[in-house]
Specification:
single chain, about 350 residues, mainly beta, OB fold (Dihydrolipoamide Acetyltransferase, E2P), five-stranded mixed beta barrel, 6 helices
Length: about 350
């Protein structure tokens, strides 16, 4: 993340002092795992934890009250927000989650754990600050947690699936609109081994654990299917991408409209939140918030090849392949937010990509 942002956040430390009765926990501490991917954090409640919101609730799940949820045994409205560490010495991110009707999750939940009409008040409590303003991504917040359950590889701050107020988590605005942390750039080889298995590192120095809960930009990918594009149910919103070495990863699509998907032959980047679902030691996926830069290839006015893309990519090289993605060579131009003009003799089968400089 940018040093400027870190410096700005540190300057706000006096504004978020926790009470003497409440411990202060970092994301590093909360998300620590053992060699088998289970939680290594020693539970102690309540605690406070700080970070910048990196998504709006409605990007991930629909928090709208469903009046028929209880009668139909549906979960109903759901709320999920990730917030990312910004303080010096801290790293990672944590999800906040709750649901309208916990009873729909299974018979092990005691009866009566559904909010019904009280759900709207709960959402107002979590989604609107004390000034009547909606919390939005880019806000620096402090969360007071009274419960935090470990599930499928990460600690989630939640209500432990009970509606009692003793399990509430609270959100306090420290400063509005401090800005999103800069997305850290990575490639599939930093998440997936050559044999296709995902990289799990209990020290969190490499692999999916290193970026879990954080804004990242995944570069040099192309879609292998568009199955989840434009879907609304969480379980259905999954597409698959690959890199030029055959590694693959799932993209979880947002509820926001991202337009038409890139073609399966187009190399692009996806920015979003690295999440972990369905396993303690793998199950890493990217929750997508932005697609780009799609490398658009066309003819220049002089008859050469024009390559355009949407963002500045410092630290990357623009490469081209003429043999079906087998051999790549650098294009002798620094990729910036400009039009790149090639020589007239460029191959009509040429494919372009951005690659992170090793």
């Amino acid at each position: 993340m940018k040093n400027l942002l870190a410096t700005m956040i540190l300057g706000l430390g006096c504004c978020a002092a926790a009470s003497a009765q409440t411990a202060v926990v970092t994301h590093v501490e909360l998300q620590a795992v053992t060699s088998t991917g289970t939680s290594a954090w020693v539970e102690s409640f309540p605690f406070t934890i700080r970070g910048v919101m990196v998504n709006d609730p409605e990007e991930m799940l629909d928090p709208t009250y469903n009046p028929g949820a209880t009668a139909s045994n549906l979960v109903g409205g759901q709320y999920q927000v990730f917030f990312q560490a910004v303080d010096a010495g801290d790293r990672g991110g944590t999800a906040l989650w709750m649901a309208q009707n916990y009873n729909a999750m299974g018979p092990w939940i005691p009866a009566g754990n559904d909010y019904d009409t009280e759900w709207t008040n709960e959402m107002n409590r979590l989604m609107i600050d004390t000034n009547g303003r909606a919390f939005r991504k880019g806000d620096l917040i402090e969360v007071t947690a009274r419960k935090a359950l470990f599930y499928n590889g990460k600690r989630n701050i939640n209500e432990a699936h009970r509606i009692t107020s003793a399990n509430d988590f609270d959100i306090r605005l420290v400063k509005a609109n401090v800005g999103l942390p800069q997305a850290e750039a990575l490639k599939l080889s930093e998440l997936v081994n050559a044999d296709g298995s995902q990289i799990f590192d209990a020290t969190r120095a490499t692999g999916g654990e290193h970026w879990q809960g954080m804004r990242v930009r995944l570069d040099g990918i192309r879609l292998t299917n568009t199955n989840g594009w434009g879907k609304t149910n969480w379980a259905d919103r999954v597409c698959a991408v690959t890199d030029d070495n055959g590694r693959s990863l799932s993209l979880r699509m947002p509820l926001a409209d991202l337009g038409e998907p890139p073609s399966t032959s187009t190399w692009f980047s996806a920015t979003g939140i690295l999440n972990q679902e369905n396993s303690n030691t793998n199950g890493y996926e990217l929750f997508v918030q932005e697609i780009g830069p799609v490398l658009n290839v066309g003819k220049s006015a002089s008859g050469g090849v024009a390559v355009s893309f949407s963002s500045d990519y410092e630290g990357y090289v623009l490469e081209a392949s003429d043999d079906g993605l087998e051999t790549w060579g650098a294009v002798d131009l620094t990729p910036k937010k400009v039009i790149v003009i090639e020589d007239d003799g460029a191959s009509t089968n040429r494919t372009y990509r951005l690659r992170k400089i090793d």
